[in-house]
Design brief:
This protein is mainly alpha-helical. The chain has a single domain, classed as NCX, central ion-binding region (A middle domain of Talin 1, Up-down Bundle), CATH 1.20.1420.30. It is 84% helix and 2% strand. Helix 2 packs parallel to helix 9 and helix 3 runs antiparallel to helix 9. The longest helix is centred in the middle third of the chain and has 42 residues. It is globular. The relative contact order is 0.24.
């Protein structure tokens, strides 16, 4: 147990360092290439910090561990809103960008609704599971999200006057700066993935040694472990005043988790909704997603510290109920 605890601490340290490097690299890329921080948060950073979920779910699907795959995605999305957004708001009030309110949050709610409806197949008289057809639907919705995100990047670059007026020498400088920023972001991603692997592996080992049921490992320990990149990245961004990057990272990650990761996992292998409290977990994810939308539209699109504390308390309370129950 002592070795697992030590390696768990090492994994978390790598996650924090990786979050710092990834945010720094993404921010430099945004400034150098004329792409907004919000767009980077919704695409590059969100995909990078969702990579641990993708790796865990792919492995779980290949090994037939459907409960791990389901709990990882649903638990990560709950943690992203309840824990990540909550802690970031407690650190610094979060001003929600109009683009998130207008396009990204509705897309996240659409993805959440699709997961809820497709996962509860009792309406069609079938077993509750995500099959290959459901996975294709998720991936099609993901392609729509990706299309609009890329279109936003293209529009941003076309409107960048500095890129059009720059001299050749300045262009070479920007290219070199972009290369260094990309290397920094890549190093951060490597640290994130390595830290996530250590964290998940040894947190799971500790959970089994402590007698935590396997049914809740995916929802709690593994989901929390794979959400640590989002937590580290968003906290660093919030500390640096980059709230667009912090919120965009969470919203984009939740969309990636449901549409891309759960979609790809369902295509590989049938993902069954756990009989015990699986529908409750889906309902909890929907409730947290709706709460984020309501909070984002209240008080001038500002999530304040007290609201962040409520989100964190709700997350901790639900996780405690799932472990004890």
């Amino acid at each position: 147990m002592a070795v697992d605890s030590l390696l768990l601490a090492v994994g978390m340290a790598l996650l924090v360092a990786g979050g710092r490097f990834l945010v720094a690299g993404a921010s430099q890329l945004a400034g150098t290439l004329g792409v907004s921080e919000l767009t980077v948060g919704l695409t590059v950073v969100a995909f990078g910090t969702s990579a641990p979920e993708l790796a865990v779910n792919t492995l779980a699907a290949l090994e037939g561990s459907a409960d791990i795959a389901f709990g990882n995605v649903i638990g990560s999305n709950i943690a992203n809103i309840g824990l990540v957004i909550g802690l970031c708001a407690m650190l610094r009030p979060l001003l929600i960008d109009s683009l998130i309110l207008r396009r990204e949050l509705p897309m996240m709610l659409l993805a959440t609704s699709a997961a809820l409806i497709l996962g509860l197949d009792r309406i069609r008289g079938e077993s509750e599971a995500y099959d290959r057809a459901d996975g294709v639907i998720f991936l099609l919705l993901f392609s729509v999200f990706l299309y609009y995100s890329i279109a936003e990047i293209v529009r941003g670059r076309r409107q960048d006057p500095m890129a059009e007026a720059a001299a050749e020498s300045a262009h070479r400088d920007r290219f070199w700066n972009a290369g260094k920023a990309a290397l920094l972001a890549a190093a951060g991603l490597v640290l994130l993935l390595g830290g996530a692997e250590l964290t998940v592996a040894h947190a799971s080992a500790l959970a089994e040694e402590l007698g935590v049921p396997r049914a809740v490992i995916g929802l709690t320990i593994i989901a929390l472990g794979t959400s640590l990149p989002e937590l580290a990245t968003s906290l660093v961004a919030t500390w640096n005043g980059q709230t667009d990057l912090a919120v965009g990272n969470v919203v984009g990650s939740n969309i990636f988790n449901l549409l891309f990761i759960l979609g790809a996992t369902s295509v590989i292998r049938l993902v069954e909704v756990p009989v015990e409290a699986g529908s409750t977990d889906l309902a909890a994810m929907a409730a947290f997603s709706l709460a984020l939308l309501l909070l984002a539209r209240a008080q001038g699109s500002l999530i304040v510290r007290s609201q962040g504390a409520v989100l964190v308390a709700a997350y901790l309370g639900y996780m405690a109920w799932r472990v004890v129950g």
